[in-house]
Amino acid sequence: TCFSNSFLVKFAILTIVVSLGDYFLPLLGAKKYGTSKYGIWGAILGMVAGIIFFPPFGMILGIFIGAIVGELIAGKENSKALKAGLATFIGSMTAVLIKLSLSVVMAFYFFIYLFKG
C-alpha cells in the first residue's frame, strides 16, 4: 500500500479522538449551559436508547430528548429544560461537523495517494 505506517497511525488516532468527541461534546455543551446531573444522565441514557432503537439519527434525538426529560425530572422549568436540550443538540451537531470534516480530509488524502501511485 502507498500509505506509510505513520500516516495510518496518525489517522487512526484522529479517528479515535473524533469518535470520543462524538460522545462527549454534547455533554460538554450541556454542562456549559448549566444542565443538572439529571439532564446529563438523561442525555447519556437518551443517547444509548437512541443508538439502540433508532439508529443512526436516534443518538442525536435521544440526547436532546433525554436532556429535556432529565431536566424536567430535576424540577426545572420547561424553558430551562429546552435550553439544556438545545445545548446538547448544538454539541451533537458540532461533533457531527468535526467528524464530517475529518472524513473529507481522509477522503482527500485517499484520492491523492490513489492517483499518485
TrEMBL record:
Official protein name in the record: DUF456 domain-containing protein
Keyword Membrane in record: yes
TM segment ranges: 6-28, 40-69, 89-115
This protein's record includes keyword Transferase: no
Native organism taxonomy: unclassified sequences, metagenomes, ecological metagenomes
The entry's keywords: Membrane, Transmembrane, Transmembrane helix
One Pfam family recorded for the sequence: DUF456
